[in-house]
Amino acid sequence: MKEIGKIWMNGKFVPFKDAKVHVLTHALHYSTSVFEGIRCYDTPKGSAIFRLPEHIDRLFKSAKLYSMKMNFSKKQISDAIIKTVKESKLKECYIRPIAYYGYGTMGLTPTQNNVDVAIACWEWKMGESKAGKFSGAKCKISSWIKIDSRAQPMKAKAASNYANAALARMEALDNGYDEAIMLNYHGKVSEGSAENIFIVKDDQIMTPPMSAGILEGITRDSVIQIIEENGGYVIETDLDREDLYAADEVFMTGTAAEVKSVTQIDKIKIGDAKPGKITKALQKTFMDVAMGKDERFLPWLKYI
Ligand SMILES: Cc1ncc(COP(=O)(O)O)c(C=O)c1O
């Protein structure tokens, strides 16, 4: 990892290499942290953070679901994110705010410990997302079932959700795939390990509903709004594994992945095993929006 700029910790900037926590930090032992993944794009009119208020809202919602008392307001965190990016001098980057139960008392109950907040950013160039962005990813249906909100709040972007996701991701990579797709306890499609999923069948675009136990993805919402604004629609419906196999196109959405084509699932080729026309069109439209080239969506960009 390139150590660029400074990391904001509880209101102060510290050098990247000194941004440390105590080994008895509650979150390290019990996974009691919530976080965000945000992108800043190098647009023709300068650096712009994509859908910052929506990410801040989700961070605070996640914190609430874990009874975290935030010591900072939404405005303070938003300003701190902008300052962290400016401090880094990076034109385009990935931004990671995290709120976590810190060091204090040790034991399962976190609530007497301080909720610490940190914000880091690191270099992330456009189109740098891993496998499959342009060639099409190969995905494996995971043997790990997606945990659901009977166990813990899945609408929180919480570290604790990601042990499940990391197991699925590792299994997929170990088996020669690029990414995992997880089914939920009902056997329905939920999402990728770090992306929402869509299919195209007979020109209809479908995606699992929130009730499938998915993260309320901000890119998912962006893509749905873009499609609607362009006169189309997305059907939110439960999908079976065979709907994936039989789809004409499959694509995934996420802050890191942006719009990523999926051309193989298990040993089955999707469509003609090349990124499909609707996926390619959406990739272009989404990047135009992120680059500030589409007037209709300019309010999604916070120029810094
Ligand atoms: C499990 C999961 N689903 C979906 C997404 C996509 O969410 P967003 O578009 O807000 O990045 C992510 C992103 O990190 C994720 O971790």
Any overview of this molecule?
The protein has 304 residues and is α+β, with helices and mostly antiparallel strands. It folds into two domains: 6-123, D-amino Acid Aminotransferase, Chain A, domain 1 (2-Layer Sandwich); 137-293, Alpha-Beta Barrel (D-amino Acid Aminotransferase, Chain A, domain 2). It has seven helices and 17 strands. Strands 8, 9, 10, 11, 12, 13, 14, 15 and 16 form a nine-stranded mixed beta sheet that branches. Strands 1, 2, 3, 4, 5, 6, 7 and 17 form an eight-stranded antiparallel beta sheet that branches. Helix 5 (218-229) links the parallel strand 12 (204-207) and strand 13. The two termini are 24 Å apart. 44% of the residues are buried. The mean pLDDT is 96. The protein binds pyridoxal-5'-phosphate.
Topology of this structure?
Blueprint: E1 6-9, E2 12-15, H1 26-30, E3 33-35, E4 38-43, E5 46-50, H2 52-65, H3 74-88, E6 93-101, E7 115-123, E8 137-141, H4 161-174, E9 179-183, E10 189-192, E11 196-201, E12 204-207, H5 218-229, E13 234-236, H6 241-245, E14 249-254, E15 258-265, E16 268-269, H7 277-290, E17 301-303
Bound molecules: pyridoxal-5'-phosphate.
The site of pyridoxal-5'-phosphate has 14 residues, from helix 5 and strand 14.
Largest sheet: 9 strands, mixed
Shape: globular
Low-confidence stretches: none
Helical fraction equals: 25-40%
Ligand species:
pyridoxal-5'-phosphate
Beta-strand content: 25-35%
Give the H and E element order: EEHEEEHHEEEHEEEEHEHEEEHE
| Helical/strand content category | alpha+beta
CATH architecture label of the largest domain = Alpha-Beta Barrel
CATH topology of the largest domain: D-amino Acid Aminotransferase, Chain A, domain 2
Number of domains: 2
Oligomer: single chain
Supply the CATH superfamily name of the largest domain.
Answer: D-amino Acid Aminotransferase, subunit A, domain 2
